[in-house]
Amino acid sequence: MKIKFNGQDWNIENTMEKYDLFLENINNNWPSAELRLSHFIVDGVAIYDNFEEYVSNRIHGIENLEIVTVTHQELLTGTIQAAIQYVFENKPRIVSMSKQFYRGATSTTWNEFGSLTEGIEWLLQLTSHLEGTFVKDAKLTESVQEIRRKLTDLISALFQALQGKDETTLSDLLQYELIPVFEELEALLPKYMIGGVA
User: Fold this and answer.
1) Would you list the domain boundaries of the chain?
2) Closest CA to 68 of 87, 88, 45
3) 184: which residues sit within 8 A by CB, 6+ positions away?
4) Beta partners for 46?
5) Where are the beta strands (DSSP E) in the chain?
6) Quick one: residue 135, left, alpha or beta (phi over 0 = left, psi -120 to 50 = alpha)?
7) What is the rounded CA–CA span in Å between residue 177 and residue 150?
8) What pLDDT is attached to residue 135?
9) Under DSSP, is residue 5 helix (H, G, I), strand (E, B) or coil?
10) What is the pLDDT of residues 55-98, one digit of tens each?
11) What distance lies between CA 153 and its chain's CA centroid?
């Protein structure tokens, strides 16, 4: 297979042994402390997670593998853009889910709620990272700390309502607590793109 990494091309045998040896060599000689792994492109298909499993399952047929890296800044910018899109796209879903909980949740509602809680935890991780990132604007840092606190409190409250199978409280938390936090995130995240760190 042909492997492209950091502007160079290598040809290796299509075996896991040679592939692992190649990766070990890259790890030992990583070109820059600033670069982060973004994704692999395997025969034209972008792979963003479970790289090893994907390659292992296809090792004998892979013709081209590109290892794509980005700077820490590029990774942060991409993550913030993804968060902005996630918040924008999920506000209407949260309103709908809130109404469904109020009327009585279905299995679909519960599945959507599970996905939503994963998204909230991802946003919590992002705010934690942003909180620890150097920014020139102290008010921006204070705002992200406040949003992080609200998300942490909200996760706890959602868990308690979930434990009690209290669908009315879940509905209220989504509509009256989560939607306002999403609105705050919609206002805050672009500031990181414009004058903050990204």
Assistant:
1) 2-70, 74-194
2) 45
3) 143, 146, 147, 150
4) 41
5) 2-5, 8-11, 35-42, 45-47, 64-71
6) beta
7) 8
8) 65
9) strand
10) 999 999 999 999 988 887 888 888 899 999 999 999 999 999 99
11) 20
Q: Which CATH number fits the domain 74-194, given the four candidates 3.30.300, 1.20.120, 1.10.357, 2.40.160?
A: 1.20.120
Do 43 and 63 meet the contact criterion of CB atoms below 8 Å apart?
yes
Exposure pattern of 61-76 as b/e (b: 16+ CB <10 Å)? Answer: ebeebbbebbeeeebb
Query: pTM to 2 decimals?
Result: 0.73
pLDDT tier, 194 (very low <50, low <70, confident <90, very high otherwise): low
Report the C-alpha gap between 105 and 117 in whole angstroms.
Answer: 16
Tokens of 136: 């020139």
Cα separation, 46 vs 132, whole angstroms: 30
- pLDDT per residue as tens digits for the range 35-45: 888 889 999 99
In angstroms, the CA 62 to CA 16 distance is: 11
Q: Which amino acid is at 63?
A: E
